[in-house]
Design brief:
- The protein is of the alpha/beta class.
- It is built from nine helices and seven strands; from the N terminus they run E-E-H-H-E-H-E-H-H-H-E-H-H-E-H-E.
- It has a single domain, classed as DsrEFH-like (Hypothetical Protein Ychn, Chain: A, 3-Layer(aba) Sandwich).
- The strands form two sheets. Strands 6-5-4-3-7 form a five-stranded parallel β-sheet, sandwiched between helices. A two-stranded antiparallel ribbon has the order 1-2.
- Strand 3, helix 3 and strand 4 form a beta-alpha-beta unit.
- The radius of gyration is 17 Å and the shape is globular.
C-alpha cells in the first residue's frame, strides 16, 4: 500500500502542513511554526473512546483523505457483514474510523465549512453546485446508506469516530486568514464545531496505534 495520499507523504504531514500554515498565517516560517506549536497543547483530548472496544471483532479504519465519504461506509460494512457471516450481535463487533490529515474536516459542522471555505482548503466540490463545498457534504450523505448521518452512525450504529487534534490545529491555522480570525480563535471554533459524538484524539496516528493496541485490526479507509 502506498504511503502517499494526494501527493503528500503521510510521514511528511507535519512538515509540509506546518510550512503551509506558516506561510498563510504569518508569512514568516519561524514565527508561525512557534505559534502553531504552541496551539498543540490547548484543546481537550481524551482516550475515553477506547473503553468502548469490548467486542471480540474489532477494526480501525484509517482515513487520510475525504475519499467521497467512503470511510464511514467501510465501518458500517464491517459491522453488518461480520454480524451476518459469524452470526454474532452488536456487542461482539466494534468499528473505529479515524479522520486525520485532509479527512479531518469531515468531522466539522456545516457552519465551519462555510465560514472557513473548507471545500477550497481540501479540494471538495459540492455535487449540487459544482463549486467548492461550503457545507459538510459527507455527514448526511453516506454512500449506500441514504438518509443516514454521521451523528446517527455514531449514536445508533455503534461506529466510533475519532478526529485528529494535530490536523485540527494545522488546518484551522491555515484556514484562519480566510475567515479573518487569529489561529487561536480558529482552533477554538473548530474544536467547538466538531460533530456531536466525535472523539478528539491527540493525533490521528496516535488514535490508530491505540486502537490497534486495544485489539483492532487495521484497514486503510482512504
Amino acid at each position: 500500500m502506498s504511503n502517499v495520499v494526494s501527493g503528500t507523504p503521510r510521514r511528511g504531514f507535519l512538515g509540509s502542513m506546518a510550512v503551509g500554515a506558516a506561510t498563510l498565517v504569518l508569512g514568516r516560517l519561524s514565527t508561525a511554526e512557534a505559534e502553531v506549536g504552541g496551539l498543540m497543547t490547548l484543546p481537550p483530548v481524551s482516550d475515553a473512546w477506547l473503553a468502548r472496544l469490548t467486542g471480540k471483532h474489532k477494526q480501525v479504519f484509517d482515513c487520510t483523505a475525504p475519499n467521497d465519504g467512503w470511510g464511514a461506509v467501510f465501518s458500517l460494512t464491517f459491522i453488518d457483514t461480520t454480524k451476518s457471516a459469524l452470526k454474532v450481535t452488536d456487542k461482539d463487533v466494534n468499528a473505529v474510523v479515524v479522520y486525520r490529515h485532509f479527512a479531518f474536516p469531515l468531522m466539522l459542522n456545516d457552519a465551519l465549512w462555510a465560514k472557513y471555505k473548507i471545500g477550497e482548503l481540501i479540494d471538495v466540490k459540492d455535487p449540487k453546485t459544482k463549486a467548492p463545498a461550503t457545507r459538510n457534504i459527507f455527514r448526511d450523505n453516506i454512500p449506500l446508506h441514504p438518509g443516514l448521518t454521521y451523528e446517527e452512525t455514531m449514536a445508533k450504529n455503534g461506529v466510533i469516530m475519532v478526529a485528529c487534534n494535530m490536523a485540527l490545529t494545522v488546518l484551522s491555522s491555515m484556514a484562519a486568514p480566510k475567515a479573518n480570525v487569529t489561529p487561536e480563535a480558529a482552533k477554538a471554533e473548530w474544536t467547538a464545531g466538531l460533530l456531536p459524538g466525535a472523539n478528539l484524539a491527540a493525533s490521528g496516528v496516535y488514535a490508530v496505534n491505540r486502537a490497534q493496541a486495544a485489539g483492532c485490526s487495521y484497514a486503510f479507509g482512504g
